[in-house]
Write a structure and sequence with these properties.
Blueprint lengths: L20 E11 L6 E11 L12 H7 L1 H19 L5 H18 L6 H8 L7 H18 L6 H11 L43 H13 L15 H15 L6 H16 L10 H6 L1 H14 L2 H37 L7 H8 L5 E3 H8 L3 H13 L5 E2 L8 E3 L1 H7 L22
Antiparallel strand pairs: 1-2, 3-5, 4-5
Helix pairs in contact: 2-12, 3-5, 3-12, 4-5, 5-6, 5-9, 7-8, 8-9, 8-12, 11-12, 12-13, 12-16, 13-15, 14-15
């Protein structure tokens, strides 16, 4: 740490990367596990320097970007293909709802909140007996949809609003404190360390109060480089700046809980809010779920060693892998829908059965009441269409034997959402595991 509290330089006199920030002492009260006595310990919290970062190649940003070029091109092409496929559809929401549902489930799984796609669908339908984990995943889905649909730009206010949805009816497990939905934290938090507590933490983010507030102000300012009066700064390719953004949010850790899910929500939503993507399809959750420890280590590597290259390389690999997987999922979903359309084709040309079936791409478990509202028909008509999809066409299933409040489930869709569409690693020309080019 630097005794004067100033930000450390990106490299020391030997050229070794240094943490992009500063450490400040904090006093933590802990209870002795044996005697029960309260003791005060001095630890150090990390305060990330304002963005943009200063990588070792600070005097030559083009060199920094150049080393990332293969991974950057693969991520850009993967996202462009996915967006291009969606842009050709008459109704992209058929696929977007499925991708959003998958993102919410996978992002939650990274935080050890695990629920199946069927449980998520039942929680969304208001079914009884659903586990708390499924309701938390539903909150994550609702938070993503709220952020996507909000007229607000990417901002601290939008993040607070999304956090309020994410933490709805969820209690924080730290000392019984409420999760404070929609409010920045007023307590010191830490990452890792259980069961030894904060003294064993892998990372301690900024303390609450003025220090945290200043980090957040600088973070929000950086997100709007084209705002009136904004100071000129070094600009990087959009996807690399998205990697910077995700790291910075996680390093600041502004909320008492839910920071990981919100950080990945930013990846999904910011490109659309910033206007350089049309659809909210950028994601890293699928890759990071499979490579969870690498993800955490790469984030920590920036704070501990200033290793921006490794972090950005992993982030770009994750974007590319998720884009390729989601494109395969989208194509399979469209095949499923096309096969159903052929089965539902009738001599009379009625569109009602197809409309009822398409609704299940948004609500994989749907009641006649919900279908009636969405299709703008009376419940009896909606029930007739849904029953026909079960008994005549075999496209839906009854959840159970009850009649009143019966749910109709699109089992084939739920199975596709849970399928692994990831591609195996290739060689160095496109590999997620390929070494960086020689410097």
């Amino acid at each position: 740490m630097l005794s004067d509290g100033s930000y450390s330089k990106p490299v020391d006199n030997t050229g070794t990367p240094q943490p992009p920030g500063r450490h400040v002492p904090i006093n933590i009260s802990e209870r002795d596990p044996i005697s029960g006595a309260l003791r005060v310990r001095e630890l150090h919290a990390f305060i990330p320097a304002p963005l943009p970062p200063t990588p070792p190649e600070a005097t030559d940003p083009e060199r920094f970007v150049g080393r990332l070029a293969p991974a950057l091109v693969r991520a850009e092409r993967g996202l462009a293909r996915l967006e291009g496929a969606l842009a050709q559809l008459p109704d992209p929401t058929i696929v977007l709802h499925a991708l959003r549902r998958r993102e919410a489930q996978r992002s939650s799984t990274i935080e050890n909140t695990v629920a199946s796609f069927e449980e998520l669908a039942l929680a969304e339908a208001g079914a009884s007996g659903v586990r708390a984990e499924a309701r938390e995943v539903l909150n994550n889905l609702d938070a993503i949809e709220h952020a996507v649909d909000s007229p607000l730009p990417m901002s601290l206010r939008l993040l607070r609003d999304a956090h309020a949805v994410l933490m709805r009816d969820v209690r924080n497990d730290r000392g019984g404190e409420r999760a404070r939905p929609g409010e920045f934290r007023t307590i010191q938090v830490f990452i890792g360390g259980a069961p030894g507590g904060i003294s064993r933490a892998r990372f301690i983010p900024p303390p609450p109060g003025p220090v945290l507030d200043e980090c957040l102000r600088a973070y929000e300012t950086w997100m709007h480089p084209d705002a009136p009066g904004a100071q000129p700064r070094t600009r990087y390719p959009d996807l690399i700046e998205l990697a910077f953004n995700h790291y910075q949010f996680e390093a600041i850790h502004p909320f008492s809980d839910g920071n990981g899910r919100l950080g990945r929500l930013i990846v999904n939503v910011l490109p659309c809010k910033a206007g350089w993507m049309r659809f909210p399809v950028a994601s890293i959750s699928g890759y990071c779920e499979r490579h969870r420890q690498d993800y955490y280590d790469a984030l920590l590597g920036v704070s501990a060693r200033g290793d921006w290259h490794n972090w950005c390389a992993l982030f770009l690999r994750a974007l590319a892998a998720d884009a390729e997987e989601n494109t395969a999922l989208a194509n399979t979903l469209l095949d499923l829908r096309a096969a159903a359309a052929r089965r539902l084709a009738t001599p009379t040309g009625s569109a009602a059965p197809a409309a009822a079936y398409n609704l299940t791409f948004r609500f994989p478990a749907v009641s006649a009441t919900t279908a009636a509202t969405e299709l703008q028909v009376v419940p009896r008509t909606a029930r007739r269409h849904l029953e026909a999809l079960v008994t005549e066409h075999g496209l839906l299933e009854h959840l159970d034997k009850r009649v009143y409040g019966r749910l109709y489930v699109n089992r084939a869709l739920l199975e596709l959402l849970g399928r692994d569409f990831s591609s195996p690693p290739t060689d160095a020309r496109g590999s997620a595991n390929a070494p960086p080019p020689a410097s």
